[in-house]
Design brief:
Blueprint (H helix, E strand, L loop, with lengths): L2 E2 L12 H10 L5 H21 L5 E3 L7 H8 L14 H9 L13 E3 L6 E3 L2 E2 L10 H11 L5 E6 L1 H7 L1 E2 L10 H17 L4 E5 L9 H14 L5 E5 L9 H5 L5 E5 L7 H7 L5 E7 L9 H15 L3 E5 L18 H4 L5 H14 L12 H20 L6 H8 L12 H12 L16 H11 L5 H22 L16 H6 L1 E4 L6 E4 L2 E3 L3 E7 L6 H9 L6 E5 L1 H6 L9 H21 L4 E5 L14 H16 L7 E6 L8 H7 L3 E4 L9 H6 L5 E4 L12 H14 L18 H21 L4
Parallel strand pairs: 1-12, 2-6, 5-7, 6-8, 8-9, 9-10, 10-11, 11-12, 17-18, 18-19, 19-20, 20-21
Antiparallel strand pairs: 3-4, 13-16, 14-15
Helix pairs in contact: 1-2, 7-8, 13-14, 15-22, 17-18, 22-23, 23-24, 26-27
The structure holds glutamine and zinc ion.
């Protein structure tokens, strides 16, 4: 019979237990022992859940205190020198991730960037010249022992050497990091032998890099790597996900491994060639349940399509989620407030495992008893699943004829500003009267406990609408005062009323649903709760105007209207599966366009439309980029172009490499773009100068993700560097991102230094 297994379980905990644990440790409310104990409890709980759900080969090594890529860096001794000669322990791990850890000196945190096309962030391995790789597998071994207390049927999960190296960066850009591969492979071999000696039979090697268009030399290196990793005493399951393998499929199937995991949700075409090519001993793991979305699978259709394969392969067919379940929330069982119909369409991690188990049970040979009933129970679940799939297709719950009509009437002219940037900028300069190198922030100010308390009191009905509004206005007023005192030029209202930049809009837009506990890890202890797009999107009433108007009334300086852009709302939600992304996005863009026009109407002179997820929406395969960029830029412009020339449109992006999408950024035609650059030392700006980025640019001058106060001198040197790339007349001065995760004390100190740096540079460049 086919067996069900899991590639990885969300480590954060259904109630975000992991977040609480590490944050308690960082704030020194608990010590290291308590932290470690909490981790053991959580891991055990997750293994038990998976065991109860009927999973085989429980994953070990999918847990992480912060990030799995960072774990590998520690395990291989890839620790940048600035952290000193330290042991690869938890303290070092947190220092590398955050720049600080209890009882140690601060240091610059490692760079963080997005894990493939997800909203999960990993810490970029830094390969310094002369790095001394050294294997420290103790933590993994210890987790293995813990797992043994739950089950003996285990599978160790590692990031494969190719992907690990691919995601890293050589500190000396001239250096080809593939040259580290031989040494790295020695460590992997040693590790595999170590695992074999500890009785491990299966190791899952995650190689999502294989679904991208890897350059030929990387692919050849990969072939050599897997030759080298064969015969180390364990069986290897080569796991690829986030897409199909395309023209590489045959080659990948020829690698000397014992099994393959393939993403059948995104690479549906991969079925047939696979079992034709399999040798008699080989295993194939079909990723049939979507690990990237929250919709229930259509098990009926799946069981039909898998039947032939199951008959042929028997227990060499494994069924799995398409990728690790890291990217979906833990348990739908905690959701009590969703409409019943919608809820019946959904599945979170725990439910997805159940789906796998049910599927395995109804496939040929699947006689093993399901918990809660045998084959009949499974058959009943299949019938329900088919009924849900049918209901979803026909539900009027999801249709809005007016929205469909508006989308069909969109004209190209609606996606263009009236005049060119050159003309607009003159009008805007005259109207705004800003100094050179204007200073601003990205939008949010610290989300204090007081703000959070007010929001949850409002939610539970303890606080009246009126008192809530007054409370928020008070926060806005204080934020404006702070900014005036600091001498910033363009102010923000501070986003106190927003729990999250996407959820806030999801709550106010039609066609979205919000979960109570649908948390997904974004980076470290930070989680997001993506809204669910289940229907056509429209805007019943203005969403932000009242707050921004209030903020503007408190000051004569310009206050930026602040919106989350259509691509980001789409990317950070769970989208419906029955409409193209471009169509969903157009609907969101039209709703935002009205908001932008209402803000303008209310006298707001600058409107920022954040698109931090713009780049992350890119397909993993470059050949599909042009099509995405075409509709993505059009949607942004659709949202932003319905205003007069005098109204200044800003956008903001972070965690991105901009080099390869710079033309699309030009195409967005925002008057000002603020971007994250501090962690990478302004390296990102080269592209902007190479392509002669024509509009205004605010390269972030300090990293807001680390709790350190940046020095004036450092920011000046970054700005000087920026001025080499883009003319100082078009430069803005701002942090890397919003400040909501920071405390006021450090925020004040940091912005104080930033404003001084801008003033001094104005003088230095003779711009005052
Ligand atoms: N305006 C948002 C903020 O300041 C932008 C956040 C983001 O880019 N992720 O929080
Ligand atoms: Zn940002």
């Amino acid at each position: 019979m086919a067996i069900a297994h899991n590639l990885g379980f969300p480590r954060i905990g259904a109630r975000r237990e992991l977040k609480r644990l590490v944050e308690d440790y960082w704030a020194e409310r608990i010590n290291l022992e308590r932290l470690e104990e909490g981790g053991r409890v959580l891991r055990r709980h997750h293994w038990k859940l998976q065991l109860q759900a009927g999973m085989f080969r429980l994953p070990v090594g999918d847990f992480s205190w912060y990030d799995q890529v960072l774990d590998h860096s520690l395990m291989f001794g890839v620790i940048p020198r600035r952290f000193g000669d330290v042991s690869p322990d938890l303290v070092t791990l947190f220092r590398m991730a955050r720049g600080r850890a209890p009882g140690t000196p601060d240091a610059r945190a490692c760079e963080m960037t997005k894990w493939f096309d997800t909203n999960y962030h990993y810490l970029v391995p830094e390969f310094e010249p002369g790095v001394e790789f050294r294997l420290s597998p103790e933590r993994l071994y210890a987790e293995l022992e813990e797992a043994r207390a739950v089950s003996n049927d285990l599978k160790v999960v590692l990031i494969g050497p190719l992907t690990y190296l691919w995601l890293g960066k050589a500190v000396d850009p001239e250096f080809d990091r593939l040259r580290f591969l031989p040494r790295l492979l020695e460590l992997y071999q040693e590790l595999l032998r170590g695992l074999a000696a500890r009785g491990v039979h299966w190791v899952q090697m995650d190689e999502p890099a294989l679904v991208t268009e890897l350059p030929q030399d990387w692919w050849s290196a990969g072939q050599n790597a897997y030759q080298a990793l064969a015969g180390q005493g364990v069986r290897l399951l080569l796991a690829t996900y986030f897409g199909g393998l395309g023209e590489r499929l045959q080659d990948v199937l020829e690698l000397p491994v014992d099994g393959w995991h393939l993403d059948r949700v995104r690479g549906a075409d991969m079925m047939e060639p696979v079992h034709a090519a399999l040798g008699p001993e080989k295993v194939v793991s079909m990723g049939v349940i979507d690990g990237r979305n929250i919709w229930r699978a259509d098990l009926q259709t799946l069981s039909v399509s898998l039947r032939g394969c199951a008959e042929q392969l028997k227990d060499r067919l494994w069924l799995a989620p398409s990728c690790s379940l890291l990217h979906v929330p833990v348990d739908l069982g905690l959701e009590k407030e969703l409409p019943d119909e919608l809820r019946s369409w959904m599945a979170f991690a725990v439910q997805k495992l159940r789906e796998l188990r049910v599927l395995a049970a109804v496939l040929p040979g699947g006689t093993r008893v399901l918990s809660g009933g045998g084959r009949e129970a499974a058959a009943a679940e299949i019938t329900t699943s088919a009924a849900v799939a049918a209901a979803r297709h026909t539900a009027d719950f999801s249709q809005d004829t007016e929205v469909r009509e508006q989308c069909s009437m969109v004209q190209e002219s609606m996606a263009r500003r009236t005049s060119t940037y050159a003309k607009r900028s003159q009008l805007q300069r005259a109207r705004l009267g800003l100094p050179a190198l204007p200073t601003t922030t990205i939008g949010s100010f610290p989300q204090t406990p007081e703000i959070r308390r007010a929001r949850s009191a409002r939610k539970s009905g303890m606080l009246s609408k009126e008192s809530y509004r007054e409370g928020m206005q008070e926060h806005i007023r204080r934020a404006i005062e702070e900014q005036e005192r600091l001498g910033l030029d363009v102010l923000v209202h501070g986003e106190a009323e927003r729990n999250d930049m996407v959820e806030y809009f999801g709550e106010l837009l039609q066609g979205f649903a919000i979960t109570q506990a649908g948390w997904v890890q974004s980076y470290g202890s930070r989680c997001v709760k993506p809204p669910i797009i289940h229907g056509d999107v429209s805007r019943p009433r203005p969403m932000t105007v009242e707050w921004i108007r209030y903020a503007q009334e408190q000051t004569s300086k310009p206050v930026k209207g602040m919106l989350t852009g259509p691509l980001t709302i789409l990317s950070w939600s769970f989208p419906r599966a029955d409409l193209k992304r471009s169509e969903i996005c157009t609907q969101i863009a039209l709703a935002l366009r009205k908001e932008v026009q209402d803000l303008e109407e209310a006298g707001v002179r600058i409107i920022q439309i954040d698109e931090p997820a713009f780049r992350e929406g890119l397909p993993l395969r470059r050949s599909q980029w042009p099509a995405y960029l075409e509709w993505a830029t059009r949607c942004f412009r659709l949202a932003s172009s319905g205003v007069a020339d005098e109204t200044q449109i800003h956008t903001h992006m972070c965690y991105s490499e901009f080099n390869d999408i710079i033309e699309a950024l030009v195409d967005l035609d925002a008057d000002v773009i603020t971007i994250e650059t501090a962690r990478s030392n302004m390296e990102l700006l080269e592209a902007f100068s190479r392509f002669q980025y024509p509009n205004e640019l605010g390269p972030g001058v300090y990293d807001i993700h680390a709790p350190l106060v940046p020095e004036e001198e450092h920011m000046m040197s970054l700005l000087r560097k920026a001025a080499e790339h883009i003319s100082a007349e078009r430069l803005w001065v701002n942090p890397d991102c919003g400040l909501k995760t920071r405390a006021w004390r450090e925020t004040r100190a940091a912005l104080h230094n930033m404003v001084r740096a801008a003033h001094r540079l104005r003088a230095e460049l003779g711009l005052t």
